[in-house]
C-alpha cells in the first residue's frame, strides 16, 4: 500500500500544475452539507482519513451541530486497519476482515469527502493543494500518519524491493504478501524481523507480530525459527509479558537479539548485517525507521532535529504554523503511537477547534485514555492501559497514576480486544 | 464572549515526575467541553456516546448509554478503589478524579441508548486507492 502511495505522491507532485487548472470544477461535484439550520461557521480541511483524521472530522461535525463544514482529503477509497493486522500473519484473520468503506461516516455526519492526495500546503494563504484541485481552509488538520525513512536503507526504498522484503507496517497488500511468504516457506526456515529504534508506530506491534508468526509456525512449521533483530536495547513495551509468552508458549523458537540495528542489507540473499554479525533470512521483514507523514513534511511542520511535529497539547495546533493542527502518529508527544491515542488526540483537537471557531477558549486541562491490546496467539490478548492528563507546568500530556499492563494474557482479554476493535471501528467509521 | 469559568488545573507539585500524577493532586477542569471530550475517549471500547457494539461474542464491552448514574459512578469508584475486579478498568478509573467519575456517570446516564453496529468489512481492492 505504502509504495503505491509513494508513487502516487510523486506523480501527484509532477501533475500538480497541470491538474490545478481543473480545480474550480471540484466544488461543483463535492456535495456540501449542513446538519444545522445556520450556515457553516467556517471550514476545516482534514488531510488523511485514517484513525485520527476520520475521528476528528466526525466529532467536529457532531460537536458543532453541523455548524462547521468539514472536508476530508484521503487518497484511498478504503480504510485498512493496522490494529488486528498482525493476526493476518498468524492466520486467524484475513485482510478483508479489516478493510472498510467510508460511506457510513460520510453520510451520517455530512462530511465532504475528496478522494485525492495532498501535494502541497500553503499555510500563508491557507490553501491545500491536491492532484485534482485545491481547497481553502479556516483551520487545517494534518492527520497523515507516518512515512518511512530510507536514508540508511536505500536498497529498500523501491516497490520491487518491498515486494521481496515487505515492511507490512501500513496494513494492506504488504501484509498479505508477508503472510504468503510465510506460507510458502519450508518447515525449518528462518523468519527474521528488524525493529527500528523508538519512536515508531505501535511500540508493542513488532513483538505482537513475533507472537503471531510463532503461533503459525508452532502448528504448521514447528522446525522453523524466528530471529528478532531489535535496534532497541530491550523489548520496549509489555516486556515481561512478551518475554514470558515467548518462553512458555513458543519455547526454543524465538531468538531475541537486542542492540541489533541494521547496518547493511543484501537484498538478493536477504542478509542483514549488524554491528556484531550477519543474519540470513528465508522470510525477511524490515520495519524501517519512521517520521511524520508526507503532508506534514511538505507543510514544513517537522522539527529540524527530530522528524515529528511539535504541537500545543490543548489544541494540537502546530508550533510551526498558525491554524494548522497535527494529530495522530505524526505528533511528537512522547507517548505511544497507537490508534486509540490517535483518536483521543483527535477528539481533544476537534473539541478545541469547535470552541475556537466559536470564539471561546478550549478546555485548559484535557484528559484522555489509551488502551492497547496485543494478541500472543489467536485467542489470548493482554493490554497496556493508561489515562493521560495535561500537565500545565510542563505543557505536555503525562501519564496519570494507576496505569499498567495485564497480569497475564487471557482469552477473556482476547474477547475484549475484539470488542475494542469493533467499537473503535464503529466509532471512527459510522 | 467567553462564558465559562475555569477552575484551572492545579498540580500540587510543579516538580511532579513526568510519569505519574496522582488524581488526588488535581482540580478537575470545569470547562463545558471537558467531560464530553473525556467521555468520547471511552468510545474505543464502549462505542460512540457509550453505545457499545453488540458483536455476539461471549464477552462484550458494557454499554454505558442510559445506564443509571448511581450504578456507573459506584462501579467506577469500586474499580478505582480496587475493590472490584477488572481487566483494564482499574487502570482507567485510578487516573480520574472523583469529580470526573461523578460527571462521567451523569453524562453517560443522559445519553439515549441506540443500537450501534460495527461497519461491514469489504474486500481489499487490488489498488486500494484510485
Ligand atoms: C502492525 C500494527 C499493529 C497495530 N496494532 C495496534 C493496536 O492493536 N492498537 C492500537 O491502538 N494501535 C495499533 N497500531 C497503531 C495504529 O495503527 C496507528 O497508531 C494509527 O493508525 C495512527 O493513526 P493516524 O491517523 O495517525 O495514521 P493512519 O491511520 O495511518 O492514517 C493516515 C492517513 O493519511 C492518509 N494519507 C497519507 N498521505 C496522504 C496525502 N498525501 N494526502 C492525504 N492523505 C494522506 C493515509 O492514506 C491514511 O489513511 C498498530 C500498527 C501496526 C503497524
Commentary on this structure:
Helix content of chain A is 32%, strand content 24%. Chain A is α/β, with parallel strands linked by helices. Chain A folds into 2 domains: 3-148 and 291-362, FAD/NAD(P)-binding domain (3-Layer(bba) Sandwich); 154-290, FAD/NAD(P)-binding domain (3-Layer(bba) Sandwich), CATH 3.50.50.60. Chain A has a 5-stranded parallel beta sheet with strand order 5-2-1-9-21, covered by helices on one side. Chain A has a 4-stranded parallel beta sheet with strand order 13-12-11-17, with helices on one face. The radius of gyration of chain A is 22 Å and the shape is globular. Chain A has helices at residues 2-20, 26-29, 51-63, 86-90, 103-109, 159-164, 173-184, 205-220, 239-249, 294-298, 339-357, 411-429; strands at 43-47, 69-73, 79-80, 99-100, 112-114, 118-122, 127-130, 133-136, 139-142, 146-148, 190-195, 225-230, 254-257, 264-266, 271-273, 278-280, 283-286, 290-292, 311-312, 317-318, 324-326, 367-375, 381-391, 396-400, 404-405. The two termini of chain A are 24 Å apart. The longest helix of chain A has 19 residues, at 2-20. Chain B has 5 helices and 1 strand. Chain B is globular and about 55 Å long. At the A-B interface, α1, β4, α11, β22 and β23 of A face β1, α1, α2 and α4 of B. β24 (396-400) of chain A pairs parallel with β1 of chain B, so a sheet runs across the interface. The site of flavin-adenine dinucleotide (FAD) has 38 residues of chain A, from α1, α3, α10, α11 and β22.
What are the main properties of this structure?
heterodimer, A: 430 residues, alpha/beta, FAD/NAD(P)-binding domain, 2 domains, B: 130 residues, mainly alpha, 33% helix, globular, disordered N terminus, binds flavin-adenine dinucleotide
Mind sketching the topology for me?
The complex is a heterodimer of chains A (430) and B (130).
Chain A: H1 2-20, H2 26-29, E1 43-47, H3 51-63, E2 69-73, E3 79-80, H4 86-90, E4 99-100, H5 103-109, E5 112-114, E6 118-122, E7 127-130, E8 133-136, E9 139-142, E10 146-148, H6 159-164, H7 173-184, E11 190-195, H8 205-220, E12 225-230, H9 239-249, E13 254-257, E14 264-266, E15 271-273, E16 278-280, E17 283-286, E18 290-292, H10 294-298, E19 311-312, E20 317-318, E21 324-326, H11 339-357, E22 367-375, E23 381-391, E24 396-400, E25 404-405, H12 411-429
Parallel strand pairs in A: 1-2, 1-9, 2-5, 9-21, 11-12, 11-17, 12-13
Antiparallel strand pairs in A: 3-4, 6-7, 7-8, 10-18, 14-15, 15-16, 19-20, 22-23, 23-24, 23-25
Helix pairs in contact in A: 3-11, 8-9
Chain B: E1 19-21, H1 34-41, H2 43-46, H3 69-81, H4 89-94, H5 98-109
Flavin-adenine dinucleotide binds next to helix 1, helix 3, helix 10, helix 11 and strand 22 of chain A.
Amino acid at each position: 500500500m505504502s509504495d503505491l502511495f509513494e508513487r502516487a505522491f510523486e506523480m501527484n507532485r509532477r501533475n500538480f500544475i497541470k491538474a490545478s487548472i481543473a480545480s474550480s470544477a471540484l466544488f461543483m461535484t463535492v456535495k456540501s452539507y449542513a446538519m444545522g439550520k445556520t450556515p457553516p461557521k467556517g471550514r476545516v480541511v482534514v488531510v488523511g482519513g485514517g484513525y485520527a483524521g476520520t475521528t476528528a472530522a466526525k466529532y467536529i461535525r457532531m460537536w458543532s451541530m453541523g455548524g462547521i463544514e468539514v472536508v476530508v482529503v484521503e487518497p484511498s477509497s478504503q480504510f485498512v486497519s493496522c490494529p488486528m493486522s498482525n493476526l493476518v500473519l498468524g492466520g486467524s484473520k484475513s485482510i478483508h476482515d479489516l478493510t472498510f468503506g467510508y460511506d457510513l461516516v460520510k453520510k451520517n455526519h455530512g462530511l465532504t469527502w475528496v478522494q485525492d492526495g495532498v501535494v502541497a500546503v500553503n499555510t500563508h494563504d491557507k490553501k491545500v493543494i491536491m492532484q485534482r484541485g485545491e481547497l481553502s481552509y479556516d483551520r487545517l488538520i494534518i492527520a497523515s500518519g507516518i512515512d518511512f525513512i530510507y536514508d540508511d536503507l536505500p536498497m529498500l526504498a523501491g516497490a520491487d524491493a518491498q515486494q521481496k522484503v515487505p515492511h507490512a507496517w501500513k496494513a494492506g497488500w504488504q501484509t498479505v504478501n508477508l503472510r504468503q511468504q510465510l506460507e510458502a516457506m519450508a518447515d525449518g526456515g528462518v523468519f527474521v524481523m528488524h525493529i527500528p529504534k523508538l519512536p515508531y508506530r505501535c511500540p508493542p506491534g513488532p513483538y505482537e507480530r513475533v507472537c503471531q508468526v510463532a503461533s503459525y509456525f508452532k502448528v504448521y512449521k514447528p522446525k522453523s525459527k524466528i530471529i528478532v533483530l531489535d535496534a532497541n536495547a530491550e523489548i520496549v513495551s509489555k516486556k515481561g509479558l512478551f518475554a514470558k509468552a515467548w518462553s512458555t508458549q513458543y519455547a526454543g523458537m524465538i531468538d531475541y537479539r537486542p542492540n541489533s540495528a541494521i547496518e547493511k542489507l543484501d537484498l538478493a540473499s536477504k542478509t542483514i548485517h549488524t554491528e556484531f554479525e550477519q543474519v540470513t533470512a528465508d522470510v525477511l521483514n524490515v520495519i524501517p525507521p519512521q517520521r511524520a507523514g508526507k503532508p506534514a513534511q511538505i507543510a514544513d511542520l517537522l522539527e529540524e532535529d527530530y522528524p515529528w511535529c511539535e504541537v500545543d497539547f490543548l489544541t494540537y495546533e502546530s508550533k510551526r504554523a498558525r491554524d494548522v493542527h497535527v494529530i495522530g502518529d505524526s505528533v511528537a508527544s512522547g507517548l505511544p503511537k497507537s490508534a486509540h491515542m490517535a483518536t483521543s488526540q483527535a477528539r481533544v483537537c476537534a473539541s478545541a477547534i469547535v470552541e475556537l471557531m466559536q470564539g471561546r477558549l478550549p478546555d485548559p486541562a484535557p484528559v484522555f485514555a489509551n488502551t492497547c491490546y496485543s494478541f500472543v496467539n489467536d485467542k489470548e490478548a493482554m493490554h497496556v492501559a493508561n489515562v493521560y492528563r495535561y500537565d500545565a507546568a510542563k505543557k505536555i500530556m503525562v501519564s496519570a497514576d494507576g496505569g499498567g499492563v495485564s497480569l497475564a494474557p487471557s482469552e477473556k482479554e482476547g474477547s475484549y480486544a475484539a470488542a475494542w476493535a469493533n467499537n473503535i471501528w464503529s466509532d471512527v467509521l459510522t | 464572549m467567553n462564558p465559562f469559568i475555569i477552575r484551572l488545573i492545579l498540580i500540587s507539585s510543579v516538580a511532579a515526575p513526568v510519569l505519574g500524577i496522582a488524581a488526588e493532586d488535581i482540580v478537575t477542569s470545569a470547562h463545558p467541553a471537558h467531560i464530553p471530550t473525556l467521555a468520547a475517549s471511552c468510545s474505543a471500547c464502549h462505542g460512540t456516546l457509550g453505545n457499545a457494539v453488540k458483536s455476539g461474542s461471549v464477552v462484550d464491552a458494557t454499554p454505558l448509554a442510559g445506564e443509571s448514574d448511581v450504578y456507573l459512578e459506584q462501579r467506577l469508584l469500586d474499580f478505582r478503589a480496587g475493590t472490584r475486579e477488572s481487566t483494564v478498568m482499574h487502570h482507567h478509573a485510578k487516573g480520574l478524579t472523583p469529580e470526573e467519575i461523578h460527571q462521567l456517570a451523569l453524562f453517560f446516564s443522559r445519553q439515549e441508548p441506540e443500537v450501534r453496529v460495527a461497519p461491514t468489512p469489504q474486500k481489499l481492492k487490488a489498488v486500494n486507492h484510485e
